[in-house]
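hey m, so remember when u said the tokens were messed up on ur end? i reran from scratch. heres the input so u can diff it against urs
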Amino acid sequence: MWALARHDDRLTAACNRVALLLAGNTPFYPLYLWFILGRAGWPALLLTGLSLPVFMATIWVARRHPLAGRIWLCTAASLNTAWVTWLLGAPSGITLFFLPCLVLAVLAFRGTELLPRALLTLLPLGLYAASLWAPHAPAIYPAADYPGLVRLNAAAVASLCVILPYMLGAARGEG
């Protein structure tokens, strides 16, 4: 699979690997939801998997234009977080995923690529703010299920916030 992520540009190759990491974990998230929510998670648990082809498309886009591929990945990550927030609701802790979106937006671009870095840093911040005031009423799960969802999401976010700097920092010559 790592061969699929290869690219002449080290930073784009690292972003392709991040896309593979995200795509590879996408099918497991519905399973985690099933274990936590059981039947109450339908159909949201299946709908969370819709991002897999979007993350995989990062590599296709990056082969045609490296900068566009990195922009695609950051945009897909933020929009996926907003989508799953819409499905599960902010009390599930899914909005925590905006943190690795910020890390990704900062590290996926070079110092000379200030405009995409700035815009893609603002995107998760704006989507987070929108999630606070969105009129959408997501599925309501039993109160006892929310701590499990928050723990799951917090652990995944913490992992990403450690993994992303290692993956992207090495490509930037920082690690």
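this time it looks ok to me. The mean pLDDT is 91. if urs says something different then somethings off w ur setup not the seq
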